[in-house]
Amino acid sequence: MKIKLYYLTTVLLFLVGWNDSFCQKPIFFSDTPDHYLIGKSILLLEDKKNEFELETVLDSSHLFKENTIDLISLGLSSSSFWLKFNIQNNTSLPYLILVIDQPSLDFVELYTQDANHTFSSLDIGEHKKFRERKYQHPVYLFDLDLAPHESATFYLKVKGDEPIVLPISLETPQDMVKLLSNKDMVMGIYLGGNVGDDFL
Q1: Which residues, at least 6 apart from 136, have a Cβ–Cβ distance to it below 8 Å?
Q2: Which residues span the domain enclosing 125?
Q3: Residue 164 placed within a domain
Q4: Domain count, the chain
Q5: Cα–Cα distance between 84 and 61 in angstroms, integer?
Q6: Would you say 91 and 144 are in contact if contact means Cβ atoms under 8 Å apart?
Q7: 46-81 pLDDT tens trace
Q8: What pTM did the predictor assign?
């Protein structure tokens, strides 16, 4: 009897631990002037054969792994990677902007779930025409249509031929403009300096 009771207790503890480890906590985004990365709040799934469709990913929640650092670094790989994250909009704004500051990615597709639990996707990778992007900028930008105090789960699929490093952040539209303006200014100074050196 004691052996059976011990076995039952062990199984229950395992199940409680399993559920807790795969219960993803949301990212609570509020009005803040600080730019910060959300890598620690993202779960990762590697598709080594590049064959997963969204349905496969949705059925593979137990295979996602936690990421422990803010800056996601996946190295040089021929795999596709799926990222899962949950966001709650604690601002008064009708939408937020997801910023993926890695222009060298070949494939970038965001899957968004609506109130009817139906997914839509937006693919703006390098294989797409640049003019088709809503935001004409090398950095990958996605609108997240979240009403104030609304939350949703998102899936992001990425692939690249170069080492994959993913600085991913959430921004308000106003902060996004400031962020990109600063990046463009720095890049202009860098390019201007290099051009100037060529004529010295």
Answers
A1: 130
A2: 26-188
A3: yes
A4: 1
A5: 9
A6: no
A7: 999 999 999 999 999 999 999 999 999 999 999 999
A8: 0.79
